[in-house]
Amino acid sequence: MLSFILRRIVATLPVMAIVALFVFSLLYIAPGDPAVVIAGDQASPEDVERIRQSLGLDRPFLIQFGGWVWRILHGDLGTSIFTNLPVSAMIGQRLGPTLSLMIVTLLLTIAVAVPLGVVAAWKAGSLIDRVIMGFAVFGFSLPVFVVGYMLAYIFALELEWLPVQGYTPLSSGFWPWLENLILPAIALGCVYIALVARITRAAMLEVLQQDYIRTAKAKGLGQGGILFIHALKNAAVPIVTVIGIGIALLIGGAVVTESVFAIPGLGRLTIDAILRRDYPVIQGIVLLFSFVYVLVNLMIDVIYTLVDPRIRY
Amino acid sequence: MDRRTVLKGLAGAGGLALTGLSAPAIAQGASARTLRFVPQANLANFDPIWGTQYVVRNAAALVWDTLYGIDAQLQPQRQMVESEETSDDGKAWTFRLRPGLKFHDGEPVLAKDVVASLSRWAARDPMGLMIIAIQQELTAVDDRTFKWVLKQPFPKMLYALAKNNAPCSFIMPERIAKTDPFKQITEYVGSGPMKFAKGEWVPGAKAVFEKFADYVPRQEKASWLAGGKQMMVDRVEWIVMPDPATAAAALQNGEVDWWENPIADLVPVLKKNKNISVDIGDPLGNIGSFRMNHLFAPFNDVRARRAVLMAMSQEDYMRAIVGDDTALWKPLPGFFTPDTPLYSELGGEILKGKRDLDAAKKLLAESGYAGQPVTCLVAQDQPITKAQGDVTADLLKKLGMNVDFVATDWGTVGSRRAAKTPPGQGGWNMFHSWHAGADCITPAAYTAIRANGDKAWFGWPNSPNTEKEITGWFDAKNLEEEKAAIGRVNKAALEDVVYAPTGFFLTYTAWRKNVSGIAKGPLPFFWGVSKSA
């Protein structure tokens, strides 16, 4: 297992290199110029050119790319064109809010979606099943920002139970941290809950047809034990897979959610950087996201061996 | 006790027990000493000379002071300066600083700091460049006195040092001001009423300013950038909210105190809230712009440009930008900011009265337009440019033009508009922008009115008449001469259609009713603003 993990980690290096080259090339050929944004609307073309030179943006592609790769190899993600702050520091500032949002959303999803999927499978074809699957279709169809605005209107403006926006670090207390994340996590989690609930239901339906389930019932095992111990464990592989894939959904969804709830996370940093053409920041974030995604896939592979002992690498 | 308090209590108790972390103690009244403000945009950098965005200028006005400040009557008033003298020939200016001025690091403000700061500012400012072009020397005479000697008189010197247009001539310590004006500073030390809390800065999310205890305000009443900048709060937090709906909800919920520029669509909701005040933020407003490329057909022919003016309905543009609130806009038969002392409508008949589409079509045909594509760059991520772009697409089609509508983002427009290549080869025919009314009072900081060909702003209009009249304004010796010169600039610029103004529009600002002292002006002024619990 250890050698498998090491092999997979080593295998991430070429993936990261390809991602780096791809992102750098894409930004190089994309229209837009950070020097123009910096110089402001009233700047002369000469001012823009001088800023471009001072940022090194007038140098040939290969020299720019080579310099960037060299810095990456030395653990330096570069400096933001706009803020003049190290990209690693900017990412560090934004990591906490995004990680918090993703963790709360993930926990909420697993806590809600898996039981819903199990119950829907158990009561397949019944009204309960239809209600749950109806909710799943609803959750999947509604854009994150629509759910976000609705939640903010009801729970923040009308009922005044929760704040509209912002983020408080965990170091300021558990409730201040959590109260800022509840509405964003529900908004972001809707799609994810719908997806995981549907996959859980489908996987469970298949497992519930198996002979060993019939045997368990014949032995007189309780319904809860059959569903959550015998059936769910055997249905876990596709569920774990979709949860892993969902991490990518969360990353994409976080961009919108963070904007709607004014959470100072990586999603907003990404959007700001793209709109301003802050190349070092965009490259740093994409590298980080691709690394996280590769890491999550690795974790999923490892979890497979825990839920299904037949799987060996 | 409401439900939220109960929830907080329950979850807080449970949560704290789980994490072992404690919530910070909040001092009594701390909330009333902190003003939470939603700015118009993200404070992405904090060098007001390197980055000339308005949001940077607005934040910088808290941290850095200026030698002179423009007041609400648009007059330059002494700020850091105690006195000034001009030589009889008008070529030498001697300035003396007020005593007791200090930077945030405790060091006194000296004449050498001013000399370095003015040198850096002048390299990036249009008026500063004009001064440099005639400069003989800029030197510190002693710790509190400095001298600016010119080769010829520059009557607008005090206006240049006081103006609120970016970049303003902010005064920094010499060691910081010696930074190349095309490179960013890394220290944010000023002598203004607030200190910048660099450690709390999260670009794109939050910026914090703390009261500078050693600031010595002037004794006069504050008026815009002039007078005594008395801070009534200890801390100002800028909270960036990219989504207007979120900002509106946060203001209604009391999570922020002041929102600089609510969008027109949300203003009716805010007006209904009994805890919120809404009013025009900047009476100088903005001027919408339809900017044509004078280098290529069809707009290289003045008849095609005039055809656009003849057909254009400013009402259509204004309603697209600000909606049906008629208090927010007015037609503008010219280029200068309405209700300011020099405002003129001379030559503005072409933009007045009923629109004559047939005459415009005839004039366009006379210009030789033969159906070639007209490349319109439209930034979709800026509501103002998007709204104007939609109206323009319709207008040009009505004129019988073949519209190549390039829907893109502002970053791309900003880059592509600099291209002087033909429209079919990466160039363009027109784009939209808007100019702050504060920049359009005189030609001093009004880059978009300049018509000196290659050196002009994007579109590169070449109108010797306009340029001649602008020079006449710079040379004017009194208000009457200035007024007459502005009228002639307006007429010449309309005759040659330097650009097409799409109208004058205003925006609102909104604040909680427990906040008082908010002044109308071209930027948010925080001095004099107080907040009750």
How would you describe the overall organization of this protein?
The complex is a heterodimer of chains A (313) and B (533). Chain A is globular. Chain A folds into 2 domains: 2-87, no CATH class; 93-307, MetI-like (MetI-like fold), CATH 1.10.3720.10. Chain A is 77% helix and 0% strand. Chain A has helices spanning 2-29, 34-39, 45-55, 61-73, 87-122, 127-141, 144-158, 174-179, 182-208, 211-218, 223-234, 236-260, 266-276, 279-307. Chain A has 313 residues and is mainly alpha-helical. The model of chain A has no long low-confidence stretch (mean pLDDT 89). With 533 residues, chain B is of the alpha+beta class. Chain B folds into 2 domains: 40-196, Dipeptide-binding Protein, domain 1 (Alpha-Beta Complex); 283-507, Dipeptide-binding Protein, Domain 3 (Dipeptide-binding Protein, domain 3), CATH 3.10.105.10. The two termini of chain B are 18 Å apart. Chain B has 15 helices and 21 strands. Chain B is globular and about 70 Å long. Chain B has a 7-stranded mixed sheet with strand order 8-9-10-1-11-19-12. A 6-stranded mixed sheet of chain B has the order 14-18-13-17-15-16, sandwiched between helices. The interface between A and B is large, with 61 and 68 residues.
